[in-house]
Specification:
binds magnesium ion; Phosphorylase Kinase, domain 1; binds 2-acetamido-2-deoxy-1-O-phosphono-alpha-D-glucopyranose; six-stranded antiparallel sheet; Aminoglycoside 3'-phosphotransferase, Chain: A, domain 2; globular
Amino acid sequence: MKDIVLKFNVENEIADVKPLGEGLINDTFKVYIKGEETPKYVLQRVNNAIFQDVELLQDNIEKVTNHIRKKLEANNESDIDRKVLSFVRTKDDKKFYFDGEKYWRLMVFISDSYTYQSVTPEYSYTAGLAFGQFQSMLSDIDKTLGETIPSFHNIELRLNQLKEAVEKDAVGRVKEVQYYIDEIEKRAETMCLGERLHREGKLPKRICHCDTKVNNMLFDKEGNVLCVIDLDTVMPSFIFSDFGDFLRSAANTGAEDDKDLNNVNFNMDIFKAFTKGYLEGTKSFLLPVEKENLPYAAKLFPYMQTVRFLTDYINGDTYYKIQYPEHNLVRTKAQWRLFECAEQKESEMREFISNF
Ligand code: GN1
Ligand code: MG
């Protein structure tokens, strides 16, 4: 892997390359150079089975990071190199390196930064503000950003993919998960609200991050958000994507793949703090229809993630990395429990939002 790093515009001697993070899609590594204790770069192998157009992917990311950098400069921000990702080009000036089989990219490691799997209400507030500001900064970017995964957060499409998987029943797992298929179906119409509103011309798409898991955010020592990472899925979507997916990870009192469903609950303190930050960060553009439906978004993402994990389980685990054979089933059950908890708290969420 050291040889791969050397394809990029780096002059230093590479000491070591070690795995980094817990992403379910790409493979990520930290790169150390001789004589330094903190990593200097982050190397990633892009999963091109999932991101099939790597050229478009890197092009999007470059547009997004350049745009954010300009905004930060215009605001006279300090320490800009820690507030937006910078990518290193290859020695022949390409945005990624293709080794004949795999695609690699290199970015600068942001020093003194921390990621978390769970957060306090205080951190959730800053996260809400940060994701709101992220959307706000991108609100005037050239709208030609491509969809790196077409219809990525379209729940109608996700439900169709589940249906197809059930019809094929490729590895004979349908029988065992019939309960979840039925429960999902019962809510399908309600959960497709966003797509309906969009068709009626009432709900816009904006540039969103679309993978706002809590571990896709870098914090400094004091708990301030430095920047948002993992920009592969930045694309037009409903703002529900960023609001809902953050809560799916941060408000969950258990793990995404918790085997003990009693650990899973939807934490309203996290919800309230995050919502407050998010509403402050998006004040300049958020429409009433978007604001009113934030509780729907909080339900939609555990719902959609259940559908996606279940589909992958039924298909025989072809999409997400798994650590053991029933991992996608365990994830399905844990996400469904989270969905049920969010469902129970919907009126409390509505009540809270109506006070803003
Ligand atoms: C994937 O790569 P990672 O782990 O940040 C997935 C998200 C899911 C998430 C579930 C491109 O994100 O959509 O919500 O796993 N990314 C893609 O943990 O499918
Ligand atoms: Mg990630």
